[in-house]
Design goal:
The chain is of the alpha+beta class and 736 residues long. The chain contains 11 helices and 39 strands. Strand 5 and strand 6 form a beta hairpin. The protein starts with a strand and ends with a strand.
């Protein structure tokens, strides 16, 4: 029907096409727009409740993971945008007088939703070109945070609702709404519908909700990174030119690590988080917090590290010269003329500051991508030398794997520590062939029991390598002799002391049941043995121990999370940009915690609340940041904030042993703690996991024992013993 509507302020009337209720088309369009946006808002409300109230992660909302897909979000927001534009056009065509305030609110709605639409256009373009899901958009991956998306949509919903009211459309639609309400609100319709909805909601909450973890006798974890001051964002940075998009993606996504150490000597462990090219590496000092808590303060600039904007992959705190103070070594992707600076060595000045002493040091590695760094005194000099490994995209350089040659420059290197911050590249004189392929984490430790640290090198696409230290600065490639024949996707390595005092290794790989990614052979648990002649041999026992699958695994460590005196296993995962939606298993994976049953023969995946978390994770460093005796977990992420999982278990006795001595003498020390008739041994390494710089500390759960005997076998052959050591302390074990 057609109605004449007067405008008393203008002394005229206009013709408006309305329905039998007197409602114009604009009112219907805006009502539909508001309804669709309200459901969108409800989806985000449910996600916020899942994540922050019921601790359900990942939080998929009402529609499940399909709503998280980039293209679904794009089309949903585009529909909303088109509805809003259509409503504005219809309003203009109606030529019906509307309050000016309403037009202003409509303009604000259009402006905000226009930016929102541009953000999603950029995100879908990134997704199509790179496969990233979720894509970073204009604001970066920050926009994908649950609470930020909730806030963004709350603003849009509010603006549209206010415009709807200010334009007077709510009065027009009211008769239709009342009629619909009368029909829907009839008892015979309303009561059964409400009962079904309420029952469904209760069932969903009962099935999926988990209580928030709390401190107590049962194992639980809570991410306290943000509240403790680790306000770091691992944003993408520029990369070196690559032969293809894959090469550029690998540079972005191999990750940047973390290092932990007490650089200022106050007894608490400080944290370095490494950034990509052009992004700042940060030093966080562990300071007193509220009550008995701890808080990390960003002291990067004050400590003299403000200029570190290299693509820093891995770092270590360690005493290079015997000063008693931990210096800082940072290994970075670098080529002259590249997007960022070189690897660096910083001298600890003893006053809370560092000085860059790289120039003239001889530590000048070139190449990319740095896959790992580890330290050991391989030549008996009393100084820790540096082993660097590189991942060089061999599949692009040599697709057939007929020769060991990657597309990127760089190869595995050994830098001999000459003392006084001077190093020499001795790779060519080691007696082993140059390895220019895809290497990740290495373990630099004595596997054969002769007192000389050997090198176990985890490799991607080829077999892992084992280089036996023959003494005199020489190594021998014993890969085949020790039984390393499997070519997988080895990345992270955790080390434990097994039977007979030999070292066993847990090595993360890619496990994708769909077979799309990796070799899909799963992780390995390389248990070592020696025959009567002393010949070393590794046998994979991962399947029999139940620890094959950690998705796309990276950093990993043996750690006694529940304080029962048996080492558990923690492993992190992720490769979000590369995987996209190509594997449901990998897309929905979380980090993994396997609890030891006490025998060391069987591990069971834990369901401890808060301990297995989603994310695009890389490095894992185990350390006790608040000195409560329960080891905590620091996890770096790609294009996202770090995760600091506080271990909330309490009521178990514990003992932390810090192995110290001149020139970081604690490296490769073996610490045996005997308590309650049970002995457990750990080894101190300056490396391992993945892109990790761990502290020189070992964390022991003592169960109910109140005291322990501690024996330390130092790498140089000396020993120390401490008897009747009370539980609940950090024992400073210093080499004689």
């Amino acid at each position: 029907m057609v109605a004449r509507v007067g405008d008393p302020t203008q002394g005229r009337s206009v013709t408006v096409r309305v329905d039998t209720f007197g409602v114009g088309p604009a009112a219907y369009v805006f009502a539909v727009t508001l309804a669709v946006q309200s459901f969108h808002m409800l989806e985000h409300v449910v996600q916020v409740l899942q994540a922050f109230v019921f601790h359900i992660l990942p939080a998929h909302g009402i529609l499940g993971s399909i709503f998280d897909l980039e293209w679904v979000h794009f089309f949903y927001n585009t529909d909303l945008y088109l509805f809003l534009i259509l409503g504005a056009v219809v309003l203009v065509l109606e030529r019906r007088p509307r309050p000016r305030a309403g037009w202003r609110w409509l303009g604000a709605s259009l402006a905000f939703q226009t930016y929102h639409e541009i953000e999603h256009i950029v995100k879908i373009a990134q997704h199509i070109s790179t496969g990233i899901d979720p894509a970073p958009g204009i604001l970066g991956h920050f926009i994908n945070l649950i609470w930020l998306h909730f806030t963004f949509n709350l603003i849009i919903t509010s603006l549209v609702a206010i415009a709807f009211v200010k334009l007077g459309l709510h009065h027009e639609i009211a008769p239709v709404a009342r009629l619909a309400a009368r029909r829907v609100l009839r008892p015979r319709v309303l009561l059964p519908t409400s009962a079904v909805l309420a029952a469904g909601l209760v069932a969903a909450v009962a099935v999926t909700a988990k209580p928030p973890p709390t401190r107590g006798p049962n194992l639980g974890c809570a991410d306290v990174a943000a509240t403790s001051g680790l306000n770091f964002s691992g944003e993408y940075g520029p990369v070196f030119p690559a032969l293809d998009a894959m090469g550029a993606m690998m540079q972005r996504d191999m990750g940047n690590g973390a290092a932990v150490g007490d650089y200022n000597g106050d007894g608490y462990l400080d944290v370095v988080l490494l950034g990509q090219a052009g992004r700042h590496t940060k030093l966080y000092r562990n300071d007193p917090g509220v009550g008995n808590g701890r808080h990390f303060s960003d002291v990067t600039n004050a400590a003299g590290l403000g200029a570190v904007t290299s693509n820093a992959r891995v770092a270590q705190f360690l005493d290079l010269t015997g000063s008693g103070r931990p210096d800082l070594v940072i290994a970075a992707d670098y080529m002259p003329g590249g997007p960022a600076g070189p690897s660096q060595i910083f001298r600890n000045n003893g006053d809370g500051t560092f000085t860059d002493v790289t120039a003239g040091s001889g530590f000048d590695p070139t190449g990319y991508i740095v896959g790992g760094m580890t330290f050991a005194d391989y030549d008996g000099s009393g100084r820790a030398s540096i082993w660097l490994s590189y991942w060089t995209q061999e599949l692009a350089g040599d697709p057939g794997l007929m020769r060991i040659q990657g597309a990127f420059p760089g190869h595995n290197r050994l830098y001999e520590n000459l003392g006084d911050y001077h190093f020499k590249d001795v790779t060519e004189s080691l007696g082993i062939s140059e390895y220019h392929a895809d290497s990740f984490t290495a373990v630099f430790a004595d596997f054969t029991g002769d007192g000389l640290p050997d090198i176990y090198q985890a490799n991607d696409h080829r077999t892992d390598r084992f280089y036996r230290n023959m003494g005199g600065g020489q190594f021998r490639d014993d890969t085949t002799a020790v039984g390393l024949t499997r070519a997988g996707n080895s990345m992270g390595v955790a080390t434990t002391v097994g039977s007979g005092g030999r070292l066993d290794l847990y090595v993360t790989n890619i496990t994708d049941p769909g077979g799309t990614f990796g070799t899909n052979q799963g992780n390995t648990f390389m248990m070592s043995s020696q025959d009567a002649g002393g010949t070393l041999h590794f046998t994979d026992e991962a399947a029999s121990h139940g620890i094959v699958d950690t998705a796309w695994g990276w950093g990993t460590q043996f750690v006694d999370m529940n304080g029962d005196g048996a080492p558990d296993i923690y492993a992190v995962q992720g490769m979000r940009e590369f995987v996209g939606n190509g594997s449901v298993h990998l897309e929905n994976a979380t980090s993994s915690l396997f609890l030891n049953d006490g025998s060391g023969l069987t591990f069971k995946r834990s369901d401890a609340p808060g301990c297995q978390v989603p994310g695009d994770q890389r490095a894992l460093v185990v350390f006790d940041f608040n000195r409560d005796g329960a080891p905590d977990l620091l996890i770096s992420q790609v294009a996202g904030p770090p995760i600091l999982l506080e271990n909330l278990i309490s009521g178990r006795n514990w003992l932390t042993v810090a192995a110290t001595g001149p020139a970081d003498a604690g490296i490769n020390a073996r610490i045996t703690v005997t308590a309650g008739g049970r002995s457990q041994t750990q080894i101190i390494l300056a490396g391992g996991s993945y892109l990790a710089g761990p502290p020189r500390e070992a964390y022991f759960g003592l169960g109910g024992a109140s005291a322990a005997t501690v024996k330390v076998a130092w790498a140089n052959g000396e020993t120390s013993e401490y008897v009747n050591v009370p539980a609940g302390q950090v024992l400073q074990a210093k080499r004689p």
